[in-house]
Amino acid sequence: MNRRTLLRASLLAPALSPLAAPALRAQGFDHTLRIIVPNAPGGTSDILARLLAPELTRALGQNVVVENRAGAAGNIGADAVAKSAPDGHTLLLMDVATLAINPALFPRIPFDVQRDLAPVSMVIYAPYLVAVKKALPVQDAASLVAYAKSHGGGLNIANAGVGSLTHLTAVEVLAHLGVEGTQVPYRGGAPALMAVAAGEADMIINGATATQPYLVNGQMKGIGVSGDKRLPALPDVPTFKELGWPMADAGTWQGIMVQGNTPRPLVERLYKELRDILGQPAMVTRLTDLGGEPRPEGPDAFRTWLTQATETYGAIVRKHNIRPE
Q1: If you placed Cys at 214, which of 6, 66, 186, 220 could pair as Cys (CB 3.0 to 4.6 Å)?
Q2: CA–CA distance from 60 to each of 91, 108, 242, 254, 271 (Å)?
């Protein structure tokens, strides 16, 4: 490099530095991170967030806190992340099936899923468990159907909210079985579970991560489980496929997203740390014990899943003419 070229580069450097600074800051984290959970405490997303937060704190060298923002079928919490600074410090952790359903469910939502939220990584897949209250006089799928058909009012079925995948799955399964039921929406999976445990509702279809402990402890009875295999902790509960039920691949797909304009290097850094955390033997064991399966799939695979799920779940919403209350 000659003297004239070197002089020109030195004169340009101060002008370029303000533009380069954001890119440089995007490589790391310099203040507290928040994991927004758009559900009530105690549900699957909340459980996962509180498992991951201390691990991310160690990996990133910054405090990571969990913040619950329930309401509007997850839209309140998701909107908070969509409108956050695009610096990777505000994360959304939720059942991302909700994000695939909401565009068909709500005529207007305050953000665009594809534009305003950037996938970081899928976290886990956990199948859905069909569970009934302990006092219900049924032991398996056949007796559940017989009971429902012999009672004019059918079953009171708790769900995580109108249009949630727990709701859509219950509607599809009951339609297949020719069974009537009253869908009772709650503000998330945790309150819905509590309603069944307390005998307030008859049945729930919900993520195994949050539901399995109630069955293992004898507080509820298991009828069926989605996914391709029985759960090790509940070997007597048959799969939907074994029962001939629809929605065999339904379940809670938990993923992490950030604001849509977050620089790709920062997204990749978050993904790398999450992938490493989810690969830890102790974490794998913990998630397996909760009925979940680690799925550290990266941003591109996550976006492909979201696009396909939006089409599939949107068709179910339209088929059953499901509308928010």
Answers
A1: 220
A2: 14, 36, 44, 21, 12
